[in-house]
Specification:
binds magnesium ion; Rossmann fold; 3 helices; six-stranded mixed beta sheet; binds manganese (II) ion; alpha/beta; binds 1-O-pyrophosphono-5-O-phosphono-alpha-D-ribofuranose; magnesium ion binding; magnesium; 9 strands; three-stranded antiparallel beta sheet; single chain
């Protein structure tokens, strides 16, 4: 497997592979929303790079909004408690909404956000997740658009963090046993 400039990391998906898949997802979303307006809702912080790239691959009249959530006890999120840290700036009532996530894991975050937004009666609500870990699901939820379906690996880069680090890696990476600390 390819290595990176940083010690203890190996590449799972290269920036080229990500770009190709994001372009395909953008084309699919463009087909599905032809002639419609769209609100792209990014889930901070992990979804920021994906939203940035996906938005430029989607040829529709789009606006951005952002939400932030926190789950109690990082790594011990099975409590199921998700808290809203930053709400939408504007209601999505009557709008076409695309929630943009870097990764769909237990599904707790997206189940919570889907419920929150459905309460506002959007015209349509869709989910785009670059990565999906179906084996980890606690809440029953699927994304409408999935980049890559992966086994239960701890992934970092392209928005995804390890203790807030590595979000800026251009590739999606795994930590190897020689990872320092
Ligand atoms: C991560 C990831 C998703 C969520 C997926 O975010 O970016 O938002 O967890 O997990 P789930 O399906 O089990 O809910 P995190 O809460 O780590 O915040 P971050 O995006 O700021 O890193
Ligand atoms: Mn996140
Ligand atoms: Mg995180």
């Amino acid at each position: 497997m390819a290595t990176t400039a940083l010690q203890g990391l190996e590449v799972l998906y290269t920036r080229q592979q990500i770009a190709e898949r994001v372009a395909e997802m953008g084309a699919e979303i463009t087909r599905d929303l032809k002639g419609e307006k769209l609100v792209m809702v990014g889930v901070l912080k992990g979804a920021a790079p994906f939203l940035s790239d996906l938005a430029r691959a989607v040829q529709v009249d789009a606006t951005f909004d952002f939400v932030a959530v926190s789950s109690y006890g990082k790594g011990h999120r099975t409590s199921g408690a998700v808290k809203l840290i930053k709400d939408l700036d504007e209601t999505v009532e009557g709008k076409n909404v695309l929630i943009v996530e870097d990764i769909l894991d237990t599904g707790l975050t997206l189940s919570y956000l889907r419920k929150l937004m459905l309460n506002q009666k959007p015209k349509t609500l869709r989910i785009a997740a670059l990565l999906d870990k179906p084996s980890r699901r606690i809440e029953k939820i699927d994304a409408d658009y999935v980049g890559f379906s992966i086994p239960n690996l701890f992934v970092i880069g392209y928005g995804m963090d390890y203790a807030e680090r590595y979000r800026n890696l251009p590739d999606i990476c795994l930590m190897t046993p020689d990872h320092p600390e």
